[in-house]
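Appendix B. One record, verbatim.
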Amino acid sequence: MTFGPGPMTSAALNAAVGAVWTSYTPTWTGATTNPVYGNAALTAAYTKIGKTVFLRMYLTMGSTTTFGSGSWSWSLPEVAAAVPGFTGKPIWSSIAAGNDTGTAVITGLLKVDSGASAFYIGAIGNNGSPWNATFPHTWANTDEIFVNFAYEAATF
């Protein structure tokens, strides 16, 4: 990160040190048919310090949410760095939580592949099977997904 001559404004300094969280709406994709948020409650935001992006997302399914078909993924606010030797492989990961309301809380492994523009959640065990409309359970109104993780961006 480089700074030009002259005084540093508070807005520029806040942005440089990641003090500002920016809201965004991740694109939710299904490998076959895309889900639709409908009236879901979505809160997603990110901040960036240097090349490190910190992201948080909380999604509560609504009565008009449709779940699509095929493996789910959500767009990242910035493309992940391409790391030599890891092309197309997960390099950043974290734990995600899903709430099958009134039944169980499910954990999953959130993954960001080297050079990717999206993240996905897979099962812990079960060969890492990706979450979808019917796995790890059949998703419905009021079910929730929580994610909070960091990854390296491709650019400053």
